Every structure is written in C-alpha cells, then in structure tokens.
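Hey,

The postdoc asked me to send both predictions to you directly instead of through the lab channel. I've kept everything plain text so nothing gets mangled by the mail client. Protein one:
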Amino acid sequence: MNFLDGSLHPENQQKLVITVAPYAPEWMPSDFPEDIPVTMAEQVQMAVDCYNAGATVLHLHVRELDGKGSKRLSKFNELIAGVREAVPDMIIQVGGSISFAPEGDSDVAKWLSDDTRHMLAQLSPAPDQVTIAINSNQMNIVEQMCEADLAGTSIATPEIYRAYREMTIPAGPEWVEEHIKRLSASGIQTQFQLGNIPSFETVERMMRRGVCNVPLVLTWVAIGGGSDAPNLYNLANFVRACPDGAVLTLETAMLNVLPLNVMAIAMGMHVRCGTEDNLWTQGRDRKMSNVEQIEQLVRISREMGREVANGKEAREIYKIGTFYQDADQTLAENGFAPNRKPGQKGFTQFG
C-alpha cells in the first residue's frame, strides 16, 4: 500500500468499516452472561444492536441453547435468515473456524472434516462472506494472553486452556483452492484471515495462477501463537506487502485490540472488535460489551475526522458481489503487478 502525501488526511480515506465479532465461540456464556447471547432471538438482537451502534460487518458464529458453539448448518441458516431480515444492509461474514467451538468436555477444540467445512458454501440464505485461513498452521490463541485476561473465565481451566493452546488450523492448498472455488460459485466472497507474510504470498500465487479470482479483502490476524505479534514492525511489514487494491482490516486480541484499531483508523484501514477478541476495558476494571466497543471506535474515528461507513457504503468498500474473470483481471483490480509474459525481461508493470 502506498502512503502518499495526504494519505493520513481523513478526506483522502475511505469511510471506516467496523467488523464486530460478538458471538465469541471460545468463551462460554458464563464468562460474560450480560453480553454473550444464547437464544436465537438474543443472537439476532445482538446483530441489530451492533449495527445500530455503527458496525456494518457481522462476524457470525452460532450457539446452541446449552451455550456451546453450534456445528449444525441448520442453526447457521436460521441465524443468517434472522439477521438478514432484521438488518438487511449488514454484511454477514460467517466464521470459517466454526468447528473449533467446544463440542464436548473431552473434545474442546476439534475442527470438522474438510467435506463438512466445504458445506459452508451451501448455507441458505447465503452469507456475504466466509472467512478462510491460508496454510496449515498453529493457532494458539492463548499464547499472548496473560492471567489477568483469563481470570475467572472458562479458558482458565487447565483442560480448556490446553485445548486452545494446542489448536492448529488445517488449511492445505488442495482444500483451500477447492473451498474458494465453491464459495465463488455460490456468490459468496472469500474473506482472507492472514496471520503472516507467507500466508499472504500464498494468496498472491493463487491469484497469479488464476485459481483465486476474487477481490483481496483480508484481515491481518495478529494474535501470536502461529500468527504475527501485534507490533508496529510486523504491521508495517504486512501493510507494505499489500497491494493498493487490497481492503485491509486489522485484528488482534485482548488489550491489544484498541491500540491496534486506533492505528488502523489513523492510517485509513478498517477495524474489528467484539467479545470474541476482547472482554475487558483497557484498565481491566470491568468487562466491555460489544456495543460499548463499537461506540468507542465510532467516537475515536469521528474525533479524527473520519466518518463511519453505513451498510451500503461498506458493501461498496468491501466489493461485495464482485468476482473476476481471470488472473489478469484479478491482478490488475487488486493492484498487483501483472504476470510475466514469455521472454519478458526486467520488472513487470501494467501499460
């Protein structure tokens, strides 16, 4: 991404798109009963409340009535339909990591089979996006968490802590390419969840081979434990790698969320918040609701002179419904250099 003179001026930046992740599959309702919805009506109302507060992208997971994360696609269909009716302009982003939600006392962090995960392309009504991780990798979500982050929560129990500490992402090339193909055929946008430069480079190579003809709408997932740590140097390195056509959101965990989001707001990128990422105020004096987290980012963004996107504007920024014909168009639209032609010497550029 280029930062020319004036890039930090709000009049030259896109309006801010706020993603909220309010369903928090790694936590149990007892961890924050005031703000973790359980019934279907509560889950739909949470989407409404978050949209009214200023969030235009809903990172969606589903709970069963016993409070555990649901793996039933029928429950996803029910929630998607309810949200679509209640807040039709909200972008619905289904979390492709649905299968790490707790399934039983002895199997806390197990992913479903590849074939079952492919069924996300068959959700009805179809969501706008499904998130996807690239390259099999460690996903130790607790590595950067401290005792104060987990105090009094279900993850503080030894067996659950160990399950999340040992979690890995199965995202090999054959499955990834097939999944993107199926999502695109269903009119669902692939939303890339990338924790490091190697994963980003894999996406670029797929686009150059013509097997990933989609907009580069991505999230930098800086949570450690197999992903980048949320520091300035890693952020700058990742941002520098992103082409000018990318739509980049920043994501991290716990007390890192607010400072990283302030950086994103200042630099013209987009933000993510919610109880899936963080439970606490910056002073850890109390837990902070989804709506409070959204309202805080809206207030900060407006103080900086950057307006917050409404649902229609967010859809345009996120390029919802856009797909490309081939590698050449994909590279050009996303801002990558073109593929090298046979016999071509030197650096490639669009003429």
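Protein two:
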Amino acid sequence: MAPSIEEKAEMASACNGIGGPPYRVTVVGSGNWGSVAAKLIASNTVKLPVFHDEVRMWVFEETLPNGEKLSKAINQTNENVKYLSGIKLGKNVIADPDLENAVKEANMLVFVTPHQFVAGICKRLVGKIKPNTEAISLIKGMEVKTEGPCMISKLITDMLGINCCVLMGANIANEIAVEKFSEATIGYRQDKEVAQRWAQLFCTPYFLVSAVQDVEGVELCGTLKNVVAIAAGLVDGMDMGNNTKAAVMRIGLREMRALSKLLFSSVKDSTFFESCGVADLITTCLGGRNRRVAEAFARNGGKRSFDDLEAELLQGQKLQGVSTAKEVYEILSHRGWQSMFPLFTTVHEICIRQLPPSAIVEYKEQITNATVVEGVAPYC
C-alpha cells in the first residue's frame, strides 16, 4: 500500500534532509512525449516518499472535434485523448491549462514542449516560481543568437535563474508508453545529488536512467540527431537501401561529435556512447517522426513542403529536424564552416528546396579545400 500524505511528509523530512514536505513536480508540456513523461513520473511519485503524489501537467488548451476542452478530457478519462490515446497516465496526473497555477506549488519543473515555444513560456514564468526550484529539459533543439547557439537548458537557466539538467535518449514515446524497455541519459552540470534525484523520479524497471556530467554534450546529441534523421528519411524515401542509410548515420554521428566539440570544449567523447548519443541516433533514424516525414518528402520528389507534410502526418505534433537544420546552418554559415559539415549543410538546403532530395548522396562534390578538424575530413 502506498504511504499516506502525512507518512510521506515524515519520511521525506528524513530523506531530503531539509525537514520540509516532499518535492512537488510539474510537467510543462502535454504532447506525446510530455504525456509519457508524466506517466513515468506519476508511477514513481506515488511510491517514493521524497515526492508528493500529485503530478501537475500543463496543457496548452485545445478544443477537440467534439467541442470538449483537451484538459477536461484528460482529467475525465486519465488519457491524453489527442496525443497519447489509449494510455492511462495515472490517477495522480492532473491536467491544468493555467500555466501559472500549474507551477505555483512545484519545486521540480520538467520542460517538454517544442523548443520554439520555450522562451515564451519562460517569459510568462518569470517571478512566478518558487525559490530553489530545479528544472530538467527533455527538449531537443536550440536557439541561435548573434553570439552563437543557446541551448534550451541555458535559456531556461538564464530566464528563470534556476539550475537546469537535461534528459535525452533513445526514447520513442509510444514505445515507452506501452512499457517497452528503454534507456535515457541525464546531463548535469555540477550537483550530482540533484541529478540522482531526477534519475529517481524517472527511473522504472522498463526505463533506466544514467547520469553524466556533460549538459552540453547530452543536449547537443539530442538536438543534432534530428538533422541526421532527416537525412536517413530522405534515403528511405528514395529506396537507397541499408548500406546508404548506415553511411549517412555514421557520417552524421561524426559531424554531431565534431560540431559539439567545436561549440563547447567541455563536451566529452564518452557522451556519444551513452543512450543520448549513438542509441538515440539509431532509433530516431529507424523510427522517429523526422525520418517518417523526410521519407514522405523524398517520395513526393520534394514537391510538397515539410510544413504541409507535418500538418498531414503528425496530427498536431511538431517536427524538430527541419527547424534544427536551419539553426545549425545559421551557425555554420556565420562561422564559415559549411564545407566542414557537408551533411548538415546539405540537409538544410534540401529542406528549403534549394537542392533535390537526391543531393543527400551527392554533397561530397561541394567540398573544396575543406578544413580538417578533429573527427571531420573530406570524404573522398
């Protein structure tokens, strides 16, 4: 039997060493992955004394075809009927369409929204969260500023003044939702105890979590692999076969590593062998939404835009690979690095229909006097 609230408070006082109540968790986001994250978390908050049972999940309110509000439907059925239909989230998950209300009691915030919305959400939260709140980002993307890339975890830290870890991995949400075995990697900056608490919150027998002291490495792996997945989908759409796809994945991993280490000297080589690295790259190139939409784009000969295909195929979910390819290209072009990263460059040019899908295996012809950096060299 799960402990009562009073029992949990007493046990939490001993466990967390602060003599206070259990940690309260809010999930900021309620799409496919956000709903699965809430399910994982809710299964642990009920059992573990350091966490308050209730998990708030902020819902960007939508009206369903039957006229009902999405948040009401989630609370009545205990399912996200639009983004994760058929999966029970846990009776302790409460959908809340009011962002400020959803976070007001929380001291652990889980951010899991499309990356282009994070700045706007954080702006609304300034001055509205509790002191000493910790955050974790499950968001795969970046913002590009004049001075260079700004990772989403840093954006959250800078705007809200709170520490932010990251969680990335080979995590196709629908598979985790039905409790198929998966792994993930937490990246933390300094406080290992905080990282271990996040691991405790997420870890289940079917979802294993490890922690590494490399926020930028973990986050860049989760971000850049979506660009490589676009390339893999293009290969699938043109029926080029497994040899070609494997080559694109290998070259993509090499460019991921090289760009990450050029942008942040602290990035560790070992991070690329964690779940957030090679495992996430493989699963996304085999079964993720970026691969799927890119395949459709190639089968249409590039005649239909990614925006149109996203709207048709993803039913409200957002495609991250195309926007990330654009952001990566902005970094490369600003620093004159396009020739050093021909796969990344070519993916963007295909996405904006400057090149045909077939160019994904022709980009080597564009290399002239490429600068050799660690892990990157001309391919012929």
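Summary for protein two, as requested: The domain at 5-213 is CATH 3.40.50.720 (Rossmann fold).

Thanks,
C.
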